[in-house]
């Protein structure tokens, strides 16, 4: 079987102009984390000791200058109790009938200021584990309707939103599960690769290896060419120790 990189030029040739292909392979500008987010971790922020049932969403953005052929995704984790009873029922009904994911209409989410946790990844000049997975106040207090991403070149005006299911814990615990020990990758800024270990690989890892949900995604074309594999869900032993030592 040919490796993923060897398939990449043939795949993109069908859809890209030479200028957009050049943009796609320019790792100096491709999916860089906003500078103010690098190494931004507020580790004093921890979830409740009791697990919080949450709805798990994916937000998708085209990349600026890519002619709609390259995409950035992030996971949004929103505690169930942050929604009204009617909204909970609507989302529960969709979860019951969904296969992999379902798109949520913009007319529904555009006025939802429901607080969520944003989990996103990009490249940066840093070597620490998850230094390129921001975890500051803007990520842990993310309104569902916010048109914002952790990278600087996402076309946030054209956000789309997809529901993937429910999780038994909130997004803060999910961050710890992915970042306190290796979970597919160490997710440092230097680990970023635009083909084999990008933002969409991270999204797959959160969905499949942290929450046990589908990692299939909505028409990302060549932006999402890696299937992550996890023998078991990623869990943070150090995170659990926080409560044992309290």
Key words describing this protein structure:
8 helices, 246 residues, disordered N terminus, disordered C terminus
Percent range for helical residues? Answer: 25-40%
Overall mean pLDDT stands at 85
**Gyration radius, to the nearest Å?**
17 Å
Structural class of the helices, strands and pairings? Answer: alpha+beta
Query: How many β-strand runs?
Result: 6
Strand order of the largest sheet: 3-6-1-2-4-5
User: What sort of overall outline do the alpha carbons produce when their principal axes are compared?
Assistant: globular
Number of helices: 8
Distance between the termini: 50 Å
Strand content: 5-15%
H-E string: HHEEHEHEHEEHHH
The biggest beta sheet reads: 6 strands, antiparallel
Low-confidence stretches: 1-21, 241-246
Task: Detail the topology: elements first, then pairings.
Layout: H1 4-13, H2 18-24, E1 54-62, E2 71-79, H3 85-97, E3 102-104, H4 106-109, E4 115-119, H5 137-140, E5 142-143, E6 160-167, H6 171-179, H7 199-210, H8 237-244
Antiparallel strand pairs: 1-2, 1-6, 2-4, 3-6, 4-5
Would you kindly provide a written description of the structure presented here, covering whatever features stand out?
This protein has 246 residues and is an alpha+beta fold. The protein has 8 helices and 6 strands. The model is unreliable at 1-21 and 241-246 (pLDDT under 50). 27% of the residues lie in helices and 15% in strands. The protein is globular and about 45 Å long. A 6-stranded antiparallel beta sheet has the order 3-6-1-2-4-5. Strand 1 (54-62) and strand 2 form a beta hairpin.
